[in-house]
Amino acid sequence: MQPFRSSRLRRGFTLIELLVVIAIISILIGLLLPAVQKVREAAAKMQCQSQMHNLAIAVVNTANEKPLPPMYGQYKSQLSFNVFYWLLPALDSEPVYSDYDTSKPNLLTAYPYIGAKIKVLSCPSDTFYPPGDVVSVSVDYALTSYAANYQVFGDPTKYNGTTDFGMQGSRKFSSGFRDGLSTTILFAEKAAHCNGSALTPNQGDAYNIWAYPTPNTSAAYTPINHRYMPMFAYGNPDPNIWPTNPYYTPGESVIPGVVGPGSKFQVRGTFEFQNCNFNRAQTPHAGSIIVVLADGSVKPVDSEVSPNTCTPACTPADPQGNQGYKIGDDW
C-alpha cells in the first residue's frame, strides 16, 4: 500500500510575496531609525547637560568668595590664562593644569596643555568638527563645545581696542549680579568649528579653542582674535552702543563683536556649517540650548525665546543703573 501523499505541493515565496515582505521590513526600519536617532540624541544631550553641570560646580568651587576667573588674564599666578584653564583643577584635570614649564624655549613644549583634549569640554552631539580634536592656529590647540559669557568673565568697560581687550574680569558672585544669579548665563554651548564665510570671506574658518590664546605675563597687551576665543556676547552692554558696537578683533576691524538682541544663540536646524556665526553661541541640539546659570544650575533655553530676553540673560548688571534688566516672561 502506497503512503498517503498530500495533494498540496510544497512551494516557496512567490516574487510578489517576497517584494511585499521586503517592503514591510523597509517600512519598519524606516519607522525605527528616527526613534533610534532620537534616543541617541537624547542620551548625547543628557551627557552634554551633565558635563555642563560639572562646569557649574567647577566655577562655584573655584570662585567661592573670590572673584570669578577672568575670560583671559591673571588669576592664581603672574601668567595669564584662559578661564577654562583656571577651572581645570575643579574639573578633575589637575595634571593638565600643571602641565607647563616656562623654562622651556619652545611654546609647544613649554605649554603642552594647550593641545590637551578635555573630555568634559566636548559635547558628543557637536559634529561640525570632531569635538576635542586639535587644530593648528599658529600652534596646536584643542577645541571645545562650550563657551564663556564675556559679559561675566570679561570687563567690557576696560576695552580700548589697542592695548586692552577687556578680558581681565574680576566679578564676584556676592556683588556682581544685580540682574540676578538665576537669570544670568555663565556658559553656553558653542560649535567647535564654525565657518565664518558670511563674516570673514577672506579670512578662513573660526575655531572654538578652550585654551586660546597662548599664556602671557600681561593680560592687557595680549592681542585677542575673537574668532578663536571660547566666548560669546563680546561687546559693550550699553544699548546706546549696540548699533555701532566697537568691539573689534585685531587685524579684522570689519568684524565687531555682538551683544544685545542680535546675540541670540543659534539652534541646529536654523544654522549649519556655512552660516554659523562665531560671535554667537550655538547648540548642536534641536529645539533648545543648554546653559549654565550663575546660581550653579543648568537650564535648557527654548529656541523660541525672544532675542530681547537673551539680552538681560547675558548681562549680569544693567550698565545704565542699579535697577537691572528685566528678564522676559518667556525665560
Indicate the overall shape.
globular
Helix content: 10-25%
Number of strands: 15
Order of strands, widest sheet: 9-5-6-14-15
Low-pLDDT residue spans: none
The percent range for strand residues is 15-25%
Question: Oligomeric state of the chains?
Answer: single chain
Query: What characterizes the major β-sheet?
Result: 5 strands, mixed
Number of helices: 6
Rg to the nearest angstrom? 25 Å
Mean pLDDT: 82
Q: How many distinct domains?
A: 1
Describe the structure.
It is a single chain. The protein has one domain (16-314). 22% of the residues lie in helices and 15% in strands. It has 6 helices and 15 strands. The longest helix has 49 residues, at 15-63. The strands form 6 sheets. It has a 5-stranded mixed sheet. Strands 1-2 form a two-stranded antiparallel ribbon. The chain has a two-stranded antiparallel sheet with strand order 3-4. The N and C termini lie far apart (89 Å). By secondary structure, it is α+β, with helices and mostly antiparallel strands. The mean pLDDT is 82. The radius of gyration is 25 Å and the shape is globular.
Keywords for this entry:
two-stranded antiparallel sheet; five-stranded mixed beta sheet; alpha+beta
Summarize the structure.
The chain has six helices and 15 strands.
Write the layout of secondary structure elements.
Elements lengths: L14 H49 L8 E3 L5 E3 H5 L6 H4 L9 H4 L23 E4 L1 E4 L3 E4 H4 L31 E5 L3 E2 L11 E2 L23 E2 L15 E2 L2 E5 L9 E2 L14 E2 L4 E6 L4 E5 L4 H8 L17
Parallel strand pairs: 5-9, 12-13
Antiparallel strand pairs: 1-2, 3-4, 5-6, 6-14, 7-8, 10-11, 14-15
